[in-house]
Design a protein that fits this description.
Strand content: 15-25%
Number of domains: 4
CATH superfamily of the largest domain: Type I PLP-dependent aspartate aminotransferase-like (Major domain)
Radius of gyration: 31 Å
Protein name: Molybdenum cofactor sulfurase
EC number: 2.8.1.9
Family: Belongs to the class-V pyridoxal-phosphate-dependent aminotransferase family. MOCOS subfamily.
Shape: globular
CATH topology of the largest domain: Aspartate Aminotransferase, domain 2
Oligomer: single chain
Structural class: alpha+beta
Catalytic activity: Mo-molybdopterin + L-cysteine + AH2 = thio-Mo-molybdopterin + L-alanine + A + H2O
Number of strands: 38
Enzyme class: transferase
Number of helices: 23
CATH class of the largest domain: Alpha Beta
Distance between the termini: 59 Å
Bound molecules: pyridoxal-5'-phosphate
Length: 807
């Protein structure tokens, strides 16, 4: 959990430890706790885990004890009558009790008897169970807060198909909504918001019950229970929620795939079985329909769970849960101690993040709140949902933040966080806006940072989230705080660096030459760099045959990218114009040779960066070759319809036709800029090695320029409008925004940390916080002189001009 880049500020740490000695670290002391963490969580040794709200890491002891237990004790299918089966059943029953005791604070057996635990596959499955089993009818109502997890929102599907009315409301509105005594009504709410950590707890449910005494309450406690006890004994039984959903991996890590629905026995009649019945949930059945019976024992007030646990329970997972709860107790004393520990961390983190300021005094971190202000809010859970802001208080993209956190060894979550309501209220997004985004091709899981119409295009499409849990340490928090300071605080010096550099005077004598010329026939695979003095044809969509082929994942239909499969860099396609072949090589493979002239395969549609394009397949042999090398089932496709996609830029250039490239027809970088990046990296590491840490190939440009006579300043390409390479003229469209892909070493196919980390500090656009390196170009045929088959040639002289001079 130590991170070399972010040495903890020792004074802050000491102050924190003094102030929180009764809450933090379970009485183990700072050193004792750190020791325990490093023994129990070897998996966290080289990373900073800040995503407990997604899942908790698993302590080593659980596995040691579990393997010991199941190796020495015979556990078997609880449906038999053998001694091992009976012992297994008893263990399962004991585990139900443990859940109620440890997580729901019911330490008195009589109180536990008022509740039942139905094991399910997880919180979502529990909510679905309620949705399916609730006796909806015409006139029934289902209400939930707008800022609910999608799993809770999804219950509305069950309600709607059975004639109920559904309403998403603000939390106070839900309390004040008219009472209804006629048909079964279900109110649902999250005890803790998964995206912001705000808590409504049991108190809000009590208020709902007071107002709507006949309604049932479904409580989504998946996030809340991760670090807090839901004290069912602290409220009168009739005012407690009727159904409570949770997942155990969020609390103790292993086992996954197990959760429960806790049901108030007196509300059992509100759960009706669907038509299905099966092994374990019946007492008798005839071979032919219709006779069968439920377990007699399970008629109220018997064990309700028998009616809902179809088939064989995952008994070893339940045994594992028992072991995990034992370990949890042994490491952390009790779940209540976990609450105190994480609250101390949360208070510290919230304060420190709010203190981070830009040089102009404006805040860097904006924390989001799901429910606004309400008297029912409890002290929040250890989750912070936030956006990072520029000095002018514009939002910085969450994907950028996530990528930077990733290369710096943090595990966080960013995006819509399965909670559209939080996103909508944070950025004022209406349901109509959401549908518009969807129709523009956006989806919950893509990498788009900003949405909105062409005019107003800086509405964030996601937020970032960090969260703490039982094994979080003060160093985790301090590391995150220094990470944000290091990369996002704009001090005067960084502002100066991102100011435009002096424009080199355009001159007719060549200022630069084309040092390398590279095309990438297969999208996201290695490049084909041409030898000196060889020339290549250009067309409006780019270099001839650039990004004309792509690889598609056979099962998901998604285009493969080096971001997921860095090994793709090792695949080297070669367009051989003389032999009219596409030759593909890769380490350990015999070359694949395909005809360059179009063959007719099946035409299908494929999705590239939210555009739909028509592509043709190239046959089974090619698919097999790529699938073997990448070890994933994939298929090679070739764009069949010519340019069917268009790139859009802010400037008045209209739209520019492209093939499968991501943004524009041509990408250009310069040698002085690459040299500057290497210089920065060397300075940062205090290492003056001879070898350049970063090779120009990682930027995957088509053109690399080098100064010819006199030196050129780094990043001069940012200030150029037009340039001429040989006979051809190109117009600069925009700077190229960079993502983690620059971290794939194109020679080895391995991921590194640079140059992304360095660029993030030195080359960040003050608006929007995007990293920029290199420029996008379009070909200006009207200003070129190359005739009917225009080409560019390696070694061509390059001159620069401003747009005004040329037109
Ligand atoms: C995690 C979570 C869920 C979904 O839980 P699953 O384990 O994926 O079923 C639902 N609601 C909230 C508040 C959560 O945090």
């Amino acid at each position: 959990m130590q991170h070399p880049d972010h040495l903890p500020h020792d004074a802050k740490r000491q102050a924190f430890l003094r102030e929180t000695s009764n809450e933090y670290a379970y009485g183990l002391g700072d050193t004792g706790f750190q020791q325990q963490c490093s023994t129990e969580y070897p998996s966290l040794a080289s990373t900073t885990y800040l995503d407990y709200a997604a899942s908790a890491p698993s302590p080593l002891s659980t596995f040691h004890r579990l393997s010991e237990t199941i190796a020495t004790t015979l556990y078997s299918n609880p449906h038999s009558r053998s001694s091992s089966s009976v012992a297994t059943s008893l263990e399962i029953e004991r585990c139900r009790g443990r859940v109620l005791e440890d997580l729901f604070g019911l330490d008195d057996a009589q109180k536990r008897a008022q509740w039942d635990v139905i094991f399910t596959a997880g919180a979502t499955a529990s909510m679905k169970l309620v949705g399916d089993a609730f006796p909806w009818q015409e006139g029934s109502k289902y209400c939930y807060p707008k800022q609910s997890h999608t799993s809770l929102v999804g219950v509305r599907g069950c309600a709607l198909t059975r004639g109920a009315v559904v309403a998403a409301m603000d939390i106070d509105e839900m309390l004040e909504s008219p009472q209804d005594h006629s048909s079964p009504t279900l109110f649902a709410y999250p005890a803790q918001c998964n995206a912001t950590g705000q808590r409504l707890g049991l108190g809000y449910g009590v208020a709902l019950k007071r107002r709507h005494s006949e309604a049932c309450i479904l409580l989504d406690a998946a996030a809340y229970l991760a670090t807090a006890v839901l004290d069912l004994g602290s409220v009168p039984l009739d005012l407690a929620p009727d159904f409570i959903a949770c997942s155990f991996y969020k609390i103790v890590g292993y086992p996954t795939g197990l959760g429960c629905l806790v049901v108030k026995r007196s509300s059992a009649s509100f759960l009706q079985r669907s038509g299905y019945f099966g092994g374990g949930t019946i007492d008798a059945i005839s071979v032919s329909p219709p006779f069968w019976s439920q377990p007699r024992r399970s008629l109220i007030p018997g064990p309700l769970h028998e009616r809902f646990e179809d088939g064989t329970l995952p008994f070893l997972n339940i045994i594992a849960l028992g072991q995990a709860l034992d370990t949890h107790r042994r490491l952390y004393k009790s779940h209540r101690h976990v609450s105190r520990h994480v609250s101390a961390l949360l208070r510290f983190a919230t304060r420190e993040l709010s203190l981070i300021r830009h040089a102009n005094g404006r805040p860097v971190v904006q924390q989001h709140r799901a429910f606004g202000v309400s008297k029912y809010l409890e002290e929040p859970g250890p989750t912070i949902g936030f956006s990072v802001l520029s000095p002018s208080s514009e939002f910085i993209g969450h994907v950028h933040l996530e990528q930077l956190a990733t290369v710096n060894g943090f595990q966080i979550r960013a995006g819509g966080l399965c909670n559209t309501g939080v996103l909508a209220s944070a950025f004022n997004i209406s349901d109509q806006d959401l549908m518009d985004e969807y129709n523009r091709g956006r989806s919950c899981w893509d990498d788009e940072e900003f949405g909105g119409s062409e005019k107003q295009s800086n509405r964030p499409l996601g937020i970032a989230r960090i969260s703490f849990g039982a094994s979080s340490t003060i160093d985790d928090v301090l590391q995150w705080v220094s990470f944000i300071r290091r990369y996002f605080v704009v001090s005067e010096t960084v502002v100066a660096l991102s100011k435009p550099l002096p424009t080199p005077r355009p001159s007719e004598s060549a200022a630069a030459s084309l040092q390398t010329l590279t095309l990438y026939p297969i999208k996201s695979c290695g490049g084909q760099s041409l030898p000196r003095n060889s020339s290549w044809q250009i067309i409006p969509t780019g270099l001839l045959h650039d990004r004309e082929w792509m690889l598609v994942d056979t099962s998901s239909g998604k285009t493969l990218s080096q971001k997921q499969y860095p090994r793709m860099a090792l695949i080297r396609p070669w367009v051989d114009l003389d032999r009219r072949k596409l030759v593909v090589s890769a380490p350990g493979m015999t070359d694949l040779v395909l005809p360059l002239d179009r063959s007719d395969g099946d035409t299908i549609s494929a999705n590239v960066c939210s555009d739909i394009v028509a592509v043709t397949s190239l046959g089974g042999a090619a698919d097999k070759w790529f699938s073997t090398f990448l070890d994933i089932q994939c298929t090679l496709r070739r764009l069949s319809g010519g340019a069917s996609r268009h790139a859009h830029f802010d400037r008045a250039t209209g739209s520019v036709p492209i093939l499968l490239s991501n943004e524009s027809p041509f990408l250009l970088i310069s040698r002085p800029s690459v040299d500057q990046v290497n210089e920065w990296i060397r300075e940062g590491s205090g290492n003056s090695g001879v070898e350049d840490p970063v090779h120009p190939a990682c930027f995957r440009a088509n053109f690399l320029l080098a100064p010819s006579m006199s030196p050129l300043v780094p990043f001069f390409e940012d200030t150029v409008d037009l340039l001429r390479i040989g006979t051809e003229t190109f117009q600069v469209l925009a700077r190229c925004r960079r993502c983690l892909m620059v971290c794939v070493n194109q020679k080895t196919g391995c991921k590194t940390k640079e140059p992304f980390s360095c660029l993030a500090r030195k080359r960040k656009n003050a608006r929007g916080g995007k990293i920029e390196f290199g420029v996008h170009l379009m070909w200006r045929e009207d200003l070129s002189q190359g005739g009917c088959k225009p080409t560019v040639c390696v070694g061509d002289p390059v001159t620069f001009a401003s747009l005004r001079e040329a037109t």
